Amino acid sequence: MNRIKKGDQVVVITGKYKGQKGEVLRVDAEKLVVQNINLIKRHTKPNPQLNQPGGIVEREAPIHVSNVMLLNTVSGKGERVGFKTLDDGRKVRVFRKSGEMVDA
């Protein structure tokens, strides 16, 4: 079970985008793509078969999972995430500082 999943709100803790918040769009092993974070410009050729225009396209590049923290919406800050097994056997993510469950 991953500490950060698709759809989570995260805050960047280091690098050029430090302090910015965004939603996780995709998770690939140790890297993840966050909305409007780590933007790059890609020069693309036109592809008429895919109805794709050419030019300079701006998109998000992957960022390492160690450079972000899960956002606690109650406190508004990034917090570390741990795991806890409930009485019914489910494994859920919890915030280390507050002990609140991430997964409702």
Explain this structure.
This protein has 104 residues and is mainly β. The protein has a single domain (9-95), classed as SH3 type barrels (Roll), CATH 2.30.30. 0% of the residues lie in helices and 46% in strands. The protein has no helices and ten strands. The protein has strands spanning 9-12, 21-28, 31-34, 39-44, 55-60, 63-64, 68-72, 77-79, 81-85, 91-95. The strands form three sheets. Strands 6-3-2-1-7-8 form a six-stranded antiparallel β-sheet, with no helix packed on it. Strands 4-5 form a two-stranded antiparallel ribbon. A two-stranded antiparallel ribbon has the order 9-10. Strand 7 (68-72) and strand 8 form a beta hairpin. It is elongated, with a radius of gyration of 17 Å. It starts with 8 loop residues before the first strand and ends in a 9-residue tail after the last strand. The model has no long low-confidence stretch (mean pLDDT 93).
> Cα-atom Rg, whole angstroms?
17 Å
Per CATH, the class reads Mainly Beta
Number of strands: 10
Nearest-integer average pLDDT: 93
Strand content: over 45%
Tell me roughly what share of residues is in helical segments: under 10%
Task: Give the structure's gist in a few sentences.
It contains no helices and ten strands. With 104 residues, it is mostly beta strands.
